[in-house]
Amino acid sequence: MVTEEEKDYLFKAYAHEADTKFNAGIRRRLAPLMNNDRRKVELLHTILFSLPGTPVLYYGDEIGMGDNVYLGDRFGVRTPMQWDMNQNAGFSAANPQRLYLPIITDPVYRHESVNVATQEENHSSFLWWMKNAIAMRKRLNLFGRGKMKFIESSNAKVLAFVRSHENLQVVVVANLSQFSQAAILKLTAFKGYDITEVFSQNRFLNVGEGDYSITIGPYGYFWLQVDAAAKRERSEASGELPLVKTDVSWEKLFDHYNEVRALERKVLPLFIKKCRWFGGKAKVVSKVSVIKAIALKAGGDTHYLTIVEVHYVQRLPELYFLPLAFITTEGMTDRVEHTVQSVVCRADIQGEAGFIMDSTYDKLFRDSLLVNMEKEGRFKDEGRGVLQFSASVFAKIDIAGGVESRLVKSEQSNAAIIFNDRYFFKVYRKLEREMNPELEIVKFLSEHTSFQNSPRYAGSIAYHDNENNVIVFGLLQEKIENQGKAWNMALDAVGTFYENVRAKYRQVAPPKLLTKYSTKFEEVPPVMQELIGRELYQRMVKLGQRTAEMHLALASNATNPAFTPEPFTPNYQRSMYSSLRKLVRDRFNLLESSVPKLAPDVQPLAKQVLLLEDKILEYFSEVHRLRINGMKTRIHGDYHLGQVLVTDSDFVIIDFEGEPGLTFSERRLKRNPLKDVAGMMRSIHYAALAKILLSSKNDEPQLLGSWAEQWQHYAGNFYLGAYMERMGTNGTLTHEGELLLRTFLLEKAIYELGFELDGRPEWTVVPLRGIKYLIDRESEI
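The structure assignment produced for this chain is given below.
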């Protein structure tokens, strides 16, 4: 309760009119009491939610509903709830005159503008803010039961106190002023602790010695979680599996909200961060939600094909596929491979001990996938969608002799399963509510073209929801017998090349490079013919031919809109130029700030490349200034030596998913085929320098650096010449082709620059040398 003096002040501040007072209090809802100032309303709710005990909300306050003080008694805040904009605010279908109390007709708060239905559709509404605040309060269980201690603040307008319970501590800061305020908080008890803002999960400055300076906006608020850095690191590194204990059966578990919430809060965030296929390790995860759990029977057990939505701070959420099963302790050793990687958590379900596991490690589950694809099974999801297993009529699935499956033991962004040593099944981990570009392209090449150098489509698994979205879980293709990837072939070839250089030409300078874009073997200087060898030339020619055949096949259908070639337009050229300018600005700013961190022998090269920025932008401007009569088609999108398998005397192109950093819709956009060619030529350059970077010999860079440029130059030119010849241009590039190839090569090298600076600074020399080589070659041409 408040004193008489405080009550008098409250009446003067918040109850100017006599009708707003009743007995010893003020009969108003919060929104009109705060003059409908959302900042004030949010601040007061934030303080309420952070106080000890259980907060009580009066109906209507969650949407900022008004009141009618002229009804007398307490009836002013007992008006009908405003559910929607229909008659009687959706509260009743009765004649409006028969309502016990009338609906609010105040122009600011009337039900046509303030109602639940409207705010449900607007994620920036006060209702959604309220939901988020309540969810955050539930996640931080200290508010309801923890201790409270006020913190000394240098500014009386800034309220601060700490709530603590067990090992969790949150500092609540509230600015009670209508103006921005600065304050120094006495956080002596948290010296050296880390500070994380709860709602955004953004890291604030470390506490330091105890005096913590903070600036906060008008009616602003913070919930600041304080953690000892060492304690957090020990917790994350402990590796102890969490335990799920429930009296609900596994078959009904995903029908119970509390059980699913326990998985979402305590289990899934820890598990997915450890998975190789999770692409958000560098992002701050705010929450993990199970948005779909489709039950599928396999071997007498219930498996759930779950779609998990990972929400990030200031990033768009991502969807991941995680099939789950409960396996008893006894069953783990008989059925499950790689138990360390497969286990999601420990579980005690209705008194039975076991583990919740990733179903892809369960042989019975894997076998059931192929059986269902062969039968083209179709399973309805209670009217919300359909799980469809499909098979190709061009590559029939043969399971007459039974099913044998094994999980491919490799670190990939997807899971891979071999069936009967004949089929290769890719389980997609990262999902989108759109057709997967790989399924689309593989089916097209298999069923609508004569292209033979890609795996044939055999089947797929996809979920069709009730909004006509297609979410692809997996793709079945015919298994290709191979001798490894073209990347390893290139490394072997360049290794032999360097051995010959050391043996015969250690003291000899390499010959001058031919400046042509495409080159025949006979045109190469004799010394390079000897060192490179005709076998590599023939391999590069074959690779160029197969690349051209792939592009011709992808552009061969004029009736399918997804694959019909499209011409360049001025708007498209303008958008290309804009994106290229932004890429150059971003990457060169990053390079400039990173030069001091590079190796001393790489820094001079980095400074030389920085001086080329204006020339690169000038080259890129031609994409906008000149009219280009090129065509856009579907392409591979992520084409390099690692996406090509080597067979006895040929190549097979695989992995048509596209650039991993792009969305599915972006990957499905049509682009000029030379973009793939540029990707392969840059991969050839990487192979030339990778052998040096991976070598343990200290003299490799000095001895072989210039020879590496010779190898990649001619290997790339062999490939390009064969490609252009198969495309029907007699092995030469038109002026527009030269412009586009140069643009795509520079774009790829500059993109690689940012990738290496962020992840592998020691490899930054590769894109740096690539940029300088491309500019030097253009200058000579």
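Interim note for the steering committee: The two ends are 87 Å apart (CA to CA). The first helix runs from residue 4 to 14.
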